[in-house]
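Onboarding guide, step 5: your first structure request.
Type a short instruction followed by the sequence, for example:

Predict the 3D structure of this protein.
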Amino acid sequence: MSSNETDIRDEKPQFVLPLVVRIERAEPPARTDALETAARAVLEILADERSTGDGEWAQIVTDWQDARIRKVVRRARGAEWRRAEALPGITVTGEAAEVRVFPPVPLDGWPKELAKLQVSGTDLEDPAAPCAPRPGAAILWLNPDLDMSAGKTMAQAGHGAQLLWWEMPEADRKAWREAGFPLAVRTADPARWAGLTTSGLPVVRDAGFTEIAPGSCTVVSEFPALGSLGD
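The system replies with structure tokens like these:
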């Protein structure tokens, strides 16, 4: 994207897509499960009929996508989670993870129930190495050289899923949605990362608002319909 196009995006009103991950003290979700559930949550709201056509969320979703596609992940538990669930949105569940995604809000206009939730404290761990992705699933490859919090990585996985959605022909979108958006989030082999970033596949380049340097490549999105570099 050219610098002129970037300037145009920055001149538009800015919105953010809020995502809330449920993290109970006794049973926090596994990191990879949370990452994949967040990515699917982004896809669910993009594909929802309320976000398209004359839907009630369509204009705000369009305005958000016309500017920078900011996403912020916050955490909730107990009563906080119940209050978040009472707001309009979509709850997506993984193996154990729960993520609720909400229609975009102005950058400084969060609902009070969400504004009070913490951004920090989303450090999650995988109890075991993730299994091999299922055949035919999209794979969101993470940069092996970056150290990001789970919340930041969830937002980046969401960006990767969104870029992939934008690239897809309508028939592939429909099939992917009907299959339940099968996807996997995995850390790329360091030896393969450079090739992934120059492969022509969708690449997320972070704006650098938090944690990492501007322009950092965080995710490369791979899907059978868009071609593959192979292992």
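Each response can be followed by summary notes, for example: Residues 150-167 form the longest helix (18 residues).
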